[in-house]
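Help! Submission page says 'invalid entity' but I think these are all valid:
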Amino acid sequence: MERLVLFDIDCTLIDGHGAGGRAIMHAIKDVYGVEGELGDYSFHGRTDPGIVRDLADLWGAGDPEAIVGRYEGETQPQVVHDLAAQLGTPDDMIDALVDACVARYVELIEEEVGKVRIEVLPGVRELVTALAGDRSVLLGLLTGNVTEGARIKLAPTGLYSLFQVAAYGSDSALRSELPTVAVARAEKLTGRRFAGKEIVVIGDTPADIECGAALGVKAIAVATGRHSLAELAAHEPDYLFEDMSDWRAVYEAILA
Ligand SMILES: [Mg+2]
């Protein structure tokens, strides 16, 4: 095996048409008892626990203007943690609150996914299928979604079982810690220690581009999310694509 290829999920592999966001907002209402508008807040690049914390914070306390944009790139557990801390929640209660909210989210995301058509983005099915059949590639996920949320979102696409290794928002609230988690799992699975540009991280946000910098990974950005080509280019990914409709070009970039 020559490459460990790690895909982000939301707006990279699929468009869930807001299912994840609706489930998280509903979970926050159920667990924290608060609700509100998103305003300029973006879920992109964040982890599930991070989002929970952000929104609870945004809706429950403090100045919303000061909170928007603060947490991009954080994982969902981290957002919940920060929020609870800001609200003065005792330390030993914070993890329990985050866990409760994420558990409720997992119940709700299954319902939400049942109501929408999860859309596989252009070229993704062809690319992922080709990579899964390539013996030089170990195919994986690197996502802010918690484990069960990732499975539930990808199950309707038929692609989930093709991913052999993964790092999730439930592994660390910090996206920047997820590449190390994925590399360790890949080594356990294959006996091979992937390093540097053998590791390929593919995603739609600056957080995806930057999360593997400490490991010197190859970053491939796709502008299929909220961030434009120009915005992503400013973060200097190794490769940048408008989308993956020319999936053979992305495949070449992965193996280059
Ligand atoms: Mg994404």
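Support: the input was valid. A stray whitespace character was the problem, and the output above is from the cleaned input. Residues 19-115 form one domain.
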